[in-house]
């Protein structure tokens, strides 16, 4: 459950940054206006800006069942998320 929440929180913050700033952040530390609970993403995901979007992987050792997380195709629709260890190609 925590992995799912951390992954979705990171996506929401990254996509909001894109809307506000017109581009995806260079790093997660470029994100603004984070709540205290939002900062958990710094220890649970890995982010990399790509030319056409971004890569986001769930990395937390606290999340034992990350491989079991699955999302339907429509979950990925409209996101700049191009690569992920949770995205089935």
Overview of the molecule:
The protein is 27% helix and 17% strand. It has helices at residues 2-21, 73-76, and strands spanning 45-50, 53-58, 81-83. The longest helix is centred in the first third of the chain and has 20 residues, at 2-21. The radius of gyration is 12 Å and the shape is globular. The chain is α+β, with helices and mostly antiparallel strands and 89 residues long. The protein has a three-stranded mixed β-sheet with strand order 1-2-3. The mean pLDDT is 89.
With strands numbered from the N-terminus, the spatial order across the biggest sheet is 1-2-3
Q: Could you report the average pLDDT, rounded to the nearest whole number?
A: 89
Largest sheet: 3 strands, mixed
Distance between the termini: 23 Å
Low-confidence stretches: none
Strand content: 15-25%
Shape: globular
* Strand/helix succession: HEEHE
Looking at how many chains there are and whether they match, the oligomeric state comes to single chain
Helix content: 25-40%
